[in-house]
Structure to design on (69 residues):
C-alpha cells in the first residue's frame, strides 16, 4: 500500500500558502493583505517559514497517513 498522506498535505499547504494567492504576510500597505496576487521577498520568507512549520507539525507531530490501494 502506498502512503499518500505526506504528498496530499504538502500539495495542499503549498497551494494554500502561496504568497499573494489567498493572503500575504507582510503586505505592501498593511500587515495582512488578501487576494492581491503580489509578492515581495519578505512575504516569500514568511510564507516559507509558515510552510516549514506546518509541514513539520502535520508530518512529524501528528503523523498524517492516507493509504490507498
Amino acid at each position: 500500500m502506498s502512503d499518500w498522506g505526506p504528498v496530499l498535505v504538502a500539495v495542499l499547504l503549498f497551494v494554500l500558502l502561496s504568497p499573494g494567492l489567498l493572503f500575504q504576510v507582510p503586505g505592501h500597505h498593511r500587515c495582512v493583505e488578501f487576494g492581491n496576487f503580489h509578492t515581495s521577498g519578505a512575504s516569500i520568507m514568511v510564507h516559507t517559514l509558515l510552510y516549514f512549520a506546518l509541514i513539520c507539525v502535520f508530518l512529524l507531530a501528528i503523523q498524517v497517513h492516507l493509504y490507498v490501494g
